[in-house]
Design brief:
CATH architecture of the largest domain: 3-Layer(aba) Sandwich
Order of helices and strands: HHEEEHEHEEEEEHHEEEHEEHEHEH
Number of strands: 16
Helix content: 25-40%
Radius of gyration: 23 Å
Shape: elongated
CATH class of the largest domain: Alpha Beta
Number of helices: 10
Number of domains: 2
Strand content: 25-35%
Amino acid sequence: MINEEVIQRAVALRRRLHRQPELSGRERRTAERIARFVAPLRPDLVLRGLGGHGLAVVFTGPEPGPTVMLRCELDALPIREAGAAGHRSAADGCMHACGHDGHMAILAAVGGGLARTRPRRGRAVLLFQPAEETGRGAAAVLADPRFPDIAPDLVFALHNLPGYPLGRIVLRSGSMCCASTGMVISLHGVTAHAAQPETGRSPARVMARLIDLLHRLPDRLGLDPALSFATVVGARLGADEAFGTAPGEARVLATLRSDRDETLQRMAAFVATSARRLARRHGLGYEIERRDEFAATVNASRAVGLVRRAAGAGRTSVPRRPFPWSEDFGQFTAIAPGALVGLGAGERAAALHDPAYDFPDELVPLGADLLSRLVRLCLE
């Protein structure tokens, strides 16, 4: 167990981080706070500025062995906090609504334990990763020329899960959470007087057909709608309240999700091909963009077995199917065996990305204990 003093310091850190959140790609002060916290722990190596504002903290054992990486996230979300806690966000329109403040506190507490007792062999790498929410951070860290110096043999991360009992460990082999991509389809026609719409080219019908196609995408491709689906997240036609003008511009924004990367690519290709065909048929110009791309997070059976051993009997649950949300941790499980572990945040906790969400402090020692046991097991 990690001693109580370390846990209390980590909880206090969590509240400071919650009060001063920063958006993806802007996490400079967050990384500095983590660096100040770990400096007294005397890690064997600290790499700063990884893939942006990322930070890697390394504790090395006296004997050679594998490298085990634990990863958490630095960034917050563009959401205005609705909670009334004393540590509520001081940044208007920005908050840790996904619990990344708690994940950082957990890894900081693990660092406190490793400072007191180094692993017997190998290395433990604590990675504080930037820009998870946009799907860009993991790729940027992996592309950093210093990453090969800390490349893992095993890699783990945890994510809090509201709706599950506090501390319940949730994981499965294979796909743990879905791949996803954002698509932006822009349509360009010609405006006209609303009294003479036939003199222009309105994208209204194409826009409507694309929205319908996206809603029916699983049926069109013969996919299980519980595992592969599209969500229309935005649509705009013409200008606001321009009642005298037939529109010439339209945009449709959608998020596509699937439990398999190859299925997601098939979905995206079908939508793009359909959009091009419809636009050309109606004489419209078009652009199709992909944004916020996430690979599926795939848990290796070996890594899942290690987590279960570290957790002990009776503490784990296996979800029936992958979680529909996405995580860029899949970039790491693509290069090394690993597992994303769900950790119950309480059955009555507000949902992730809810303006009232606040990571439960009680989860810090539970998460730190699990990850500490896991590191010791891998490096014993």
